[in-house]
Amino acid sequence: MKFATTALAGMATFLALTSPAFAKNKFPYCTGSTYEVSNKNCAKFDFKDVHTKCVETSNCTTFYDITNLPKQSINAHTTKMAELITNVFENGNTKMGYAYVEALGDGRGYTCGYIGFTTGTNDALAVINQYTKRKPKNALSKYVPELERISKLKFCDTKRNNTSGLSGFPKAWSTTACKDPVFVQTQLDVGNAMYLEPALQYAKSVNVTSNLGKAIFYDTIINHGWQYVEPLINLPRILQLTGPHRKHESEKSYLGRFLQTRRQLMCCYPDDVWPPAADRVADLQRLLQNWKRNKDLKHPVTLKIYGVTVKGTENMSYDTAECKHEPKGWKLPAAKMLPVPDTCPNKLFEATQ
Predict the structure, then answer these.
(1) Where is the secretion signal located (predicted)?
(2) Tell me: the pLDDT tens digits for 219-269?
């Protein structure tokens, strides 16, 4: 995720939790009786000591075991619409950031690629391992030993943010993404296994089956994650606080409650990072209001707050934001299904040997 969690000083946290005016002035989508920072809206989240808690891994993965959740399919057009909508929220446009690399100072090292794989949380390593299986000789494989060393640190160890042993990594990632379609497809395949497939399973578990609903769950899992090491803000917690999909309740109604809970969580979180991101939920709520037109995602959708229309016909195969010239004959190879990283041994993250 291209999303940094910023720890604030105690006074800022106190003001955010006790003064609706503080949030209202700073965060326009955290206002009104439903979303203002108040005890009525925020007590259920129990955001106490949020910046001092860290959950260590209990097995070979940071993700919940979802093998018992039901599965459902998604067509290529809906996948594209979902990825483009989330890309607008993450990057402000429909240009896919495959070559993006930046050290955000969020404790996760380098953040890379179209959905923000990071060197500090092992998923950038997963991308490189999968890429090396497809193309053994590449410019990124030399970083595997250092990334494996980082992966063996305790999850809460601040040294995971250290990039001193990754000299030249940003250029190597960006250049490879701009020149090799195999690397771009590898990013997409890992992203699908790590986020899209789990999003579909979580959606199906509460009988959300519409294309718009799938896109909403995809955006939520990209933004909030589904790792048990981040239990306060992840998708499973939003589901738990939303409550079950009630008998005879329409999917539109359930998604309305789901998005309301998600937006409240973001507004109530005591920092300066989550509350401003509530604008993306407000845009999704607008799409939900026009359920009849948008539920199948067959038509272009306009994200009014971001000022971008997503059509589903955009070129997603090349990073036109970070790369200068698309190589002649550029074409992505066929996609490959990869395992969801929810059980041990974690085959998605395994080395090439």
Answers:
(1) 1-23
(2) 999 999 999 988 999 999 999 999 999 999 999 999 999 999 999 999 999
Side chain identity, residue 141: S
* Separation between Cα atoms, residue 121 and residue 339, nearest integer Å: 18
- How far does Cα 140 stand from its chain's mean position? 23
Q: Note whether 103 and 109 are within 8 A (CB).
A: yes
> How does 287-313 read in b/e, with b if 16+ C-beta sit within 10 Å?
bbeebeebbebeeebebebbebebebe
Catalytic annotation, pick one of 36, 83, 90, 251: 90
Q: Which domains are delineated in the chain?
A: 10-92+191-310 (1.20.141.10)
Please report the pLDDT score of residue 52 as a whole number. Answer: 65
Distance (Å, whole) CA 244 – CA 255: 11
Rounded to two decimals, the pTM is 0.90
Longest dimension (CA), the chain: 58
Is 296 catalytic? The answer is no
List, in order, residues 6 or more apart from 194 with CB less than 8 Å away.
Answer: 123, 126, 340, 341, 348
User: Which pair of tokens denotes residue 350?
Assistant: 């395994």
Q: Pairing between strand 110-112 and 117-118? A: antiparallel
Cα separation, 45 vs 53, in Å, equals 15
Strand pairing category for 301-303 and 117-118:
unpaired
Under 8 Å CB-to-CB from 126, ≥6 apart: which residues?
A: 117, 190, 194, 341, 348, 349
CA distances to 25, 133, 149, 197, 219 from 190, rounded to whole Å, are 40, 13, 21, 10, 16
CA distances from 70 to 144, 192, 202, 227, 342 (A): 34, 17, 8, 18, 14
- Catalytic hit among 49, 56, 65, 106: 106
